[in-house]
Write a structure and sequence with these properties.
119 residues, alpha/beta, 18% helix
């Protein structure tokens, strides 16, 4: 079994689209289908898919599953951009192992996510 898709709940699709577009360095277009507002983050073939979703009953929260995003060489730059664009760094750059680092942050909607990078 493999993870194939992750959905992140948001309260304001326009604000979240701007934040996650900045984070993934790509323009995001929010769409609506059957009362669901969402935007899909484009990923390479074979990678786990990701979307942000404004849907009744699907509420952002700092508690729950923690999704790690691979920031690679842009790790430190991403932490700065998160803070500059309405997010909040919760746990700053910290070692995860001898060969990797992580940080956690709150997005503009109240979710807690993490960045990860090999060092």
């Amino acid at each position: 079994m493999n993870v194939v898709w992750v959905e992140i709940p948001v309260k304001n699709i326009e604000r979240a689209t701007a934040f996650y577009g900045m984070l993934f360095n790509q323009p995001l277009e929010h769409m609506e289908y059957d009362g669901r507002k969402f935007a899909v983050i484009q990923v390479a073939e074979g990678q786990v898919g990701l979307s942000i979703n404004q849907v009744a009953g699907f509420e952002p929260s700092p508690d729950g599953v923690l999704v790690y995003l691979n920031a690679g060489a842009q790790f430190d730059e991403m932490l700065v951009k998160i803070a500059q664009n309405g997010g909040k760094v919760v746990i700053p750059r910290s070692p995860m192992s001898e060969s990797s680092v992580f940080a956690t942050f709150n997005d503009t909607e109240g979710n807690t996510l993490a960045l990860h990078a090999d060092v």
